[in-house]
Design goal:
The protein is 39% helix and 19% strand. It is an alpha/beta fold. The strands form 2 sheets. A 5-stranded parallel sheet has the order 2-1-3-6-7, sandwiched between helices. Strands 4-5 form a two-stranded antiparallel sheet. The chain starts with a strand and ends in a 6-residue tail after the last helix. The relative contact order is 0.20.
Amino acid sequence: MTKTICIIQGHPHSDPKRLCHALARSYAEGAKQAGAKIETIDLGAAEIAMLRNPADFMTAPAPAIVKAQETVTRAHHVVVIYPLWLGTMPAVVKAFFEQLSRNEFAIGRSDKGWPRKMLTGRSARVIVTMGMPAAAYKLFFGAHGVRGFESGVLAMAGFKPVKETLIGGIGELTQKRAGALFERMRTLGARDAGLKKK
């Protein structure tokens, strides 16, 4: 069976020269070489409305979001890539997942009030770039911005396992290190597609 991987490109800017876009392309290359089918959702190129009324969570979203829901539904594995902004994800990524979760798509309600995981059977990987060293983000800040997304959104929706790849020090990225990062992404893509073991 061909594995389908959905890459959610979360950089708010659609410029393909951005590091997040380059990382996504390298990941996709590795996954495709391993036989996976790739579908991409580019948030930088999308118009995503802010969700302001809590009641809207229980209603159907706009057609573009419905299309994104269909893309996620087809996926066996979802990769979310974004830069760390103010300690967490850019606002457009949060807005997208709020819209994506509408109409009980990701998290449903049970009769007893407990959340129902609507996207079980899928795995996920979160790839985050940042200026500070990744070790410092983990050690001094607890990586709370990323961990909250992983546990409060992805795991709550049923994704398991949820893996993370934190890439720090991008402000001092040399051509040599960039090449090593792209190769690392290709390896991760192939691994997530099932070609290689952990």
